Amino acid sequence: MKKLALLSAVISLCFLTGLSSFQPKEDWENLLDKDLSKWEMYLSYRHKVGYKGEQPKDADGVAIKPIGYNKNTNNVFSVTEEKGEPVLRISGEIYGCVFTKQEYQNYHLKLKVKWGQKKWEPRTTLLKDSGVLYHSIGESGQDYWRAWMLGQEFQIMEGHMGDYWTIANSAVDIRAYLPEGNMNTVASAKQPFLPLGKGTNLGGFCLRSEDHESPSGDWTDIELICYQDKSLHIVNGHVVMVLQNSRYVENDKTIPLTKGKLQLQSEAAEVFYKDVKIKSLPELPKKYAAYFTN
């Protein structure tokens, strides 16, 4: 009887162990650690008021080289801790970014953002500014500010969380102005898509549909859904921008832009990021698919 009881206990233990191996596993990948081991960095210039996109030059008219890759001048990028979790501080003192070593496609990105106190030229009298750039490809310094890769921008700005900006020669079709009170309904997806950016008759900027940024000093939850050529900008749980047909134009040829690296901008304002996580999407979640129906 003792042997039988022992055998029964072993079988039960094995059965429970087997069951545990089939339990759902956390599929979010943490992108932020104290060493920024999954990121590289790029710094361009200390831009001044009145800059108009030109190549910066010294007093003799000689072109000034950007600071370049992985040179953390003045500790623009640093990692602190909050309750044992890493927090990325971007001082904003010099234009540039941290960017992921890996490219991503078909994913759900989450992060939290909060403003610091410091601002720098040329934005000392303007709103604090940063951004999450996605589908980023090629070399850094391809944009107006000579600081970032070609890509699409999820704007991070005071009072403008979730706006869209084209970066360099990118373009996209946008559905942003949704009926009031219908932010998360199928009816809200009936507005027409407008083409913006390179190769269109419109500029490369669009306002988000509503402001859902947290109060000053609090963390704002940011989510980015990307699947194939589609993306959604989500602020504190609210969809504020719907985009599709992500692309860029090169030598008059339109090329799909559906994967790339992630960039977090240094853009003349102190900003903090934490809980930066990403997971793969096998399909576009049904609750978001309705935003793309015509």
TrEMBL record:
It comes from Adhaeribacter pallidiroseus. This is 3-keto-alpha-glucoside-1,2-lyase/3-keto-2-hydroxy-glucal hydratase domain-containing protein. The keyword Glycosyltransferase does not apply. Residues 27-279 form the 3-keto-alpha-glucoside-1,2-lyase/3-keto-2-hydroxy-glucal hydratase domain. The lineage of its organism: Bacteria, Pseudomonadati, Bacteroidota, Cytophagia, Cytophagales. Residues 1-22 form the signal peptide. Coiled coil: none annotated. It holds the Pfam family 3keto-disac_hyd. Keywords: Signal. InterPro entries: AL/BT2_dom. GO terms for molecular function: hydrolase activity. Gene3D superfamilies: Exo-inulinase, domain 1.
